[in-house]
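Quarterly update from the structural biology core.
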Amino acid sequence: MYSTKLAYSMHLAYSEDGLHYQALNHNSGVLFAKATENEDGTLRAKSLKNPYLFLLADGNYGVIAVRTEADGEADEQSKGKVLLFSSADLLQYSEVGLLELKADTFVSDVSCTYDPDGNGYQIHWIDEQGKGYENFIADVMSLRNVSAPQEAEPFTLDTVDADIEGMLPRNVISVSAETGRRLYCKLTVPENIAVVVPDRVNAASVEDVEAVRATALYSDGTQATKRVHWNTDAINWDEAGTYSISGKIHQEHFPFPIALNRADPCIVGWKGKYYFIATNDADKEHTLYMREADTIPGLVTAEEALILDSSTYEEIGGLLWAPEFHIIEDELYIFHAATPGEFFHEESHVMKLSPGGKPMSAEDWSKPCRVVKKDGSYLCEAGKTISLDMTVIRWNGQLYAAWSERQFLPVDLGAWVYIATIDPQEPWKLTSDPVLLTRPDYGWANNHTFVDEGPFALYTDDKLYVTFASAAVDATYVVGLLTADKGADLLDIKSWTKGNYPLLTSRSVPGEYGPGHNSYVTDEDGVIWNAYHARPGIDGPRSSGLRRVHFDIDGAPVLDLTEDKDLNPELKQVSMEVIVG
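Predicted structure, tokenized:
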């Protein structure tokens, strides 16, 4: 489950007393080495080992490490060099590059310390033969003007004793209480610690009482609004007075999985109903079935209707993948991928519901239309490049499509995610040139295969979040995160920040392996739900799940808040006084 590629990364543990340590981020890596690019454009995965965390002169942080090949073997490109990163908060890191130590030998271990008296940094390192050396550099992040190595005693690190599975201990560094608290809040799952309701309210009807919500408080200082089932039987609405009532906080229960053999799930609310659609693994992706219900929970047991199969149209064969609902200009569309027959001809398509049509009626959906570029040519050249997982993003009054595209010829580049503007009247037409959004350059994104796919937008008042899925669709499948600010030009790659580590992995929620390909839907209470797939067992079938999206201390999405942590069962019962006129 936790492969070598994922293990060869920097992990963090937290302690308040220097004796007892707690692994952060589910004991999963937070910093990974980036892949390098070969001459033909393909990526060569890299890993890191023996990371060492140190303070920079400006108060920020540095990480120095040994870069390796993906499996931990010696990296020829890194011979006589070490890899450097910088970070302001130990959450987001920038890979600065390789520092040349001016030695023709492989580095096996390394440390770095700022020397204020010498106004520079001492780099201590050990070669593959166990010999020690040291270099000096005034500005380590410049990667320039490093001294020649001098022989020195091999350095040692203080022993760290912590009960953390698989830990290869490195160094300990002290941080401020504020930084430590922030790291803890960002890299652990919050827990519901209290529930607050008003002590008393004025009400003239049952509806007034039902409108009163509870506020759930969490261990990280965040909160969420909850609906309450209030018992108003004791209230006499015809007699003024003060009445004491009780209530039970509402919580939807979605045991995993909600649908076996259903991957890439998507839910939409449309004209008073909710609809569910997903890739059908049960028949090797030859059909698309839809469910309809009055509520999101109702979708779990709703009957399915066939919307499209591989025999409906001559040019639409098997591999009907990743269907998504999108509402554009008050019209309902399904974006999906299809092929005439072979995997190497997979292409993004769009279907439109006819005006006044019934979503559960296959006859009311248009024939799938293949996506085209702004010059009218097809998005991809059949047999050479494929496209899939197309989604729609609305931002700053503009409409965008983002999708995964994989070039196979002349070389296989792996799957990369692109973005372009589209025509709202004909959303299968791009109106700008595609721009590369993300490629699988981190170790968690190129595990077993080089894949970034499944982008989907999640909006807050001031941020656009796009989650995407990476690696092979086995237990190593994970969810990454891209972020853009309000007002940002989404076609400018500098507008985007890519997280160094995935939001969801097989270590995030016990019993759910290879989580990925998320989508989001908001219910009638304003609660945002994350629809995703994972496997119930390492080798289990891809199956759909639903979990509430929480938002952390920065307003970023939390996707691993399980039901027991979302609402403490002991806090579900609440009470208040109701004052009647």
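Helices lie at 4-7, 177-187, 206-210, 563-566.
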